[in-house]
Amino acid sequence: MEQRLDVLAIGAHPDDVELMCGGTLARLSAQGYRTGILSLTQGEMGSRGSREQRKFEAQQAARILDVAWHGMLDIPDSNVAVNEENKLKVIAEIRRHRPDLVFAPPQRSRHPDHVNCSQLVREAVFFAGLRRLETDAPHFRPQRLAYYMEMVDFVPNFIVDISSTFEKKMASIQAYTSQFYQPGKEDREEPTFISSPEFYQSIISKAEYWGQKVGVRYGEPFEVAEPIGVDDPVNLLCHKRQTKEERQALD
Ligand SMILES: [Zn+2]
What we know:
This protein has helices at about 15-30, 50-65, 85-95, 110-125, 165-175, 195-215, 235, 245-250; strands spanning about 5-10, 35-40, 70, 100-105, 145-150, 160, 220-225. It is α/β, with parallel strands linked by helices.
């Protein structure tokens, strides 16, 4: 049986995951977790870049983020429907890789494919656990689903410090040469919303903004639907604790 993943990040299109949680994936890989990226579509309706080119770019990006596995389904781009057929495709991937943690697009998004992807993943994570729903793999339910942030802000439940992997995140985004602004390079193609220098700058600004909220250089925010159970709130909430000597020095 294929080696399981600890974390599977799912997006509607190639490059969604890199943009929204690439720093987190690279950091988790560095911490020894087996990470994966699944794109529901092959991005063939994007204004720029062919299907083959986007596949190549996704491979490059996956390598940069040190993910253990990446794949693309064949759900049609700009028609990510929440239906039985697509749900079974996502369930099959979840059962095949058995991740503890799944990342998905948020429930509110600018792009309708992302909204539907969010719903599909939410349903698939749950129904993958039903024994009586038979596929060719045994039933399995991930422990947790977390939503990454896109254009619509929410109050995050946690922010991952990605300062140590921010350069990798940006390199993985730059690997999508057909899609994004490439600093220092001339762009001869038709401009799109995401190919502008302003969009590129906004990726950096957002990482700085969310990092600043938790006292680090760069961050990526997430939301979870259910409350988080904690064994040690002191350790969780005060990870920059003062030593005994530091406390005494303040007295
Ligand atoms: Zn997308």
